[in-house]
UniProtKB/TrEMBL annotation:
This is Gastrulation defective protein 1 homolog. GO terms for cellular component: nucleus; site of double-strand break. Residues 115-143, 196-218 are annotated as: Disordered. Keywords: Repeat, WD repeat.
Length: 218
């Protein structure tokens, strides 16, 4: 079979669908589509149904109850579902504007989006702002300056003896060497009683080898 659609002719009100035989082109059937042109026709081989697209945006389906399978047969005969109460009351979530209401029941006017975002940005809860540093330890948190041993050493030794950028490093090292020699603080006081005079290892000649390092003669 061959199908073709026909638009509404002048003086007529219906479009027409013509069906011909493939071998002889003999017209087998002519179907009328009221008040609309026929834009496109298609036959689905698995469903065995004819779909017609109309000019008014609708779709017409032709099928045989015995020879067709599924498709339009799935929803033919079903009753129209009733609207639920929640679908009817769709404006419940919309804001109700009452300009003359009492101050107790008066709601805030809807603000523009950018002002709303700026206000939420200032809110520490909505903006998820982290906790600010505190001056003293509280609730298991360390203070801003720190209360550990490393922070104490850095604060009391590192910052108090900070070297300026314009200072000569050689003069700074010589000054500390002089202070260490005159006022020993770390190592020298520990050996003041047991070893007042420093004893250093004597330098040995690299050419002289010990008895243990000499090769043995067999």
């Amino acid at each position: 079979m061959v199908m073709t659609g026909e638009s509404i002719n002048k003086g007529e009100t219906d479009g027409k669908l013509h069906i011909f035989k493939t071998a002889t082109f003999e017209k087998v059937q002519e179907l009328s589509i009221p008040n609309s042109h026929i834009i496109k026709t298609i036959w689905h081989p698995r469903l065995n149904q004819i779909f017609i697209g109309c000019g008014d945006g609708s779709v017409k389906i032709f099928f045989d109850e015995d020879k067709s399978a599924r498709g339009a047969k799935l929803f033919i005969g079903k009753k129209k579902t009733k609207k639920r109460q929640m679908d009817v009351i769709s404006a419940a979530s919309q804001p109700i504007i009452t300009p003359h209401s009492l101050p107790l029941f008066r709601q805030e006017k809807p603000k523009p989006l950018h002002k709303k975002l700026e206000k939420e940005r200032q809110d520490p809860v909505k903006s998820h702002r982290p906790d600010l540093p505190i001056k003293s330890g509280q609730g298991g948190r360390v203070a801003a300056s720190g209360s550990t041993l490393s922070s104490y050493v850095i604060r009391n030794l590192g910052l108090s003896k900070r070297v300026e950028d314009d200072q000569d490093p050689r003069e700074a090292i010589l000054r500390y060497a002089k202070d260490a020699a005159e006022n020993p603080y770390w190592i020298t006081p520990a050996y003041k009683k047991t070893q007042p005079n420093a004893i250093f290892k004597k330098e040995e000649d690299s050419d002289e080898e010990g008895e243990s390092k000499k090769p043995r003669l067999v």
